[in-house]
Amino acid sequence: MDLKDKNILILGLGISGVSTVKALNKIGANIYISDTKEKEDLKEYLDEIKDIDAKLYLGTNDVSLKNIDLIIKSPGVPLDLDIFKRANEKGIEFITDIELAYRIRPNAKFIAITGTNGKTTTTTLTGEYFKKAGFNTYVVGNIGVGLLWDLVNSKEEDIFVIETSSFQLESTKDFNPKISLILNITPDHLNWHGNYENYINAKKKIFKNQTKEGFTILNYDDINIREMVNEINSNIIWFSLDNKLDKGVYVEDRYIVINNGEKLDKVIRIDEIMLPGKHNLENVLASVAVAWIMDIDFKIVRDVLKTFPGVEHRIEYVDTINGVKFYNDSKGTNSDASIKAIEAINSPIILIAGGMDKGTDFDDFIKAFNNKVKALILLGETKEKIKDTAIKYGFKNIFLVENMKEAVKTSFSLATKNDNVLLSPACASWDMYPSFEKRGEDFKASVFSLREENNG
Questions:
Q1: pTM of the model as a whole
Q2: CB 378 within 8 A of CB 354
Q3: What does the alpha-carbon distance between residue 337 and residue 332 come to, in Å, rounded to a whole number?
Q4: Sign of CA dihedral 168, 170, 172, 176
Q5: For residues 161 and 112, what is the distance between their CA atoms, to the nearest angstrom?
Q6: Which residues of the chain does CATH 3.40.50.720 include?
Q7: String of DSSP letters for 190-227
Q8: Could you give the residue ranges of the DSSP H alpha helices within 320-369?
Q9: Which pLDDT belongs to residue 61?
Q10: Nearest to residue 355, comparing CAs of 427, 408, 422, 440?
Q11: Which is it for strands 398-400 and 373-378: parallel, antiparallel or unpaired?
Q12: Which fold has domain 316-453?
């Protein structure tokens, strides 16, 4: 795709926006940037592109589309904005960075990973296999690293492991990775997509353009995913935590095994895997399927799995203060993710939850407490909604707070030795924080402040 001297409008100057600006500048495009935030709120990003000649429209997305050839949208920018209606009327395409990356280099070795939960862990873990195997590897995408700047500076043989969100996939048209992977699908981002069906359809776009030359890795235990099989043209590789498969990756006799249809290979005993939790075992199975397809030596896979501790903000151990352990699961941005965290942590749990309302209910979340949760501390936009749901199911030991510092102090005042304080919000962070990372950092800072107050 030749973009030299083309007029490209970048809508949303976040991490992916900065990466896109840098890449388009190197390619020789004329760059226009629009963001509804004001200049002072974008200083961090503007500093990164200060030497690049770009026309800025800040504090608005009401931008003239005259002479614009293409719009690259930040993934989270909603599609119901007037600017997209005007673009459609003028025949101007609007796509996300992963679509542009494919068009720039359609033969790149893209491994695209999606799902409601587990994307970041699986993407990071998969990247570790390739790095240890000696590949020049880029771990990018929704994980918090822009794709395009790395792409235009890479070589043909380099590997790209891409965490892909439903927001990114929604605005793809030709995107065709070498390997696609769907971990699981449960209701999420319904406020953005409109309904569950639209959300599922966005996820399906990860395999939509694949052919028999590609591979699609799917979770056999997820009924929503199994029902997709007739829509897939690529080679399907299943993984399963609960079922023996005629061909695929699964657990047998406490081993992860690979069945290629003719013989069985043992990869690793599950008690040798450093990552905790049943949900992480699913992530491991999926990552092993990628390694199998790409012929990575099982010894490398074993070595990584024995030492990989997980990712920041996902059931991350923070500290122990007077016998009370604190865990940061800020990445738990929906009920299903937080349910998995509750299952993974020993009781008794003092749970901190709440955040931005994405239009989902919290019934399953509360029902998953299963006598493990001792107290519930709520903050953010959804605190009353979660409180009402908890009371409906008979859980009444609830405390409402205004900020994270108050949440941590309250949790500690309620805790006794051997209790576990778990931040797992079951909600997005955007009502109080710019990202789940910032929320997790605030939690950890509040815990460390608490330690100082209690003299270690």
A1: 0.81
A2: yes
A3: 5
A4: positive
A5: 6
A6: 7-95
A7: HHHHSSHHHHHHHHHTTTTT--TTSEEEEETT-HHHHT
A8: 335-344, 363-367
A9: 87
A10: 427
A11: parallel
A12: Protein-Tyrosine Phosphatase; Chain A (3.90.190)
Q: Are 29 and 6 in contact (CB under 8 A)?
A: yes
Residue 75, preceding peptide bond in cis (omega within 30° of 0):
no
pLDDT at residue 275 in the model = 85
Res 54: pLDDT = 95
Q: For residue 173, how many other CB atoms are within 10 A of its CB?
A: 12
Superfamily of domain 7-95: NAD(P)-binding Rossmann-like Domain (3.40.50.720)
Hey, what are 402's tokens?
């205004």
Do 33 and 56 form a contact (C-beta atoms < 8 A)? Answer: yes
Phi-psi region of 350 (alpha: psi -120 to 50; beta: other; left: phi over 0): beta
| Homologous superfamily of the 98-307 domain (CATH) | Mur-like, catalytic domain (3.40.1190.10)
pLDDT of the residue at 278: 81
Structure tokens at 76: 């989270």
* pLDDT of the residue at 38: 92
Consecutive 10-residue runs of the chain (456 residues): their mean pLDDT? 93 92 96 94 92 94 94 91 95 96 96 93 96 97 89 96 94 97 87 86 96 97 94 97 96 96 95 86 97 97 93 88 95 92 92 94 96 97 97 97 98 97 96 94 97 80
Give one DSSP letter per residue of 285-322, joined into a string.
Answer: HHHHHHHHHTT--HHHHHHHHHH----TTSSEEEEEET
- Contact criterion met (CB below 8 Å) for 163 and 120: yes
What strands lie across the sheet with 7-11, from one edge to the other? 54-58, 30-35, 7-11, 70-73, 93-95
Identify the pLDDT of residue 276: 78
Q: In whole angstroms, what is the distance from residue 336 CA to residue 119 CA?
A: 13
Residue 303 carries which side chain, given as an amino acid letter? D
With residue 412 as reference, give the H or E element that holds it. helix 404-414
Q: Which two tokens stand for residue 319?
A: 């500290």
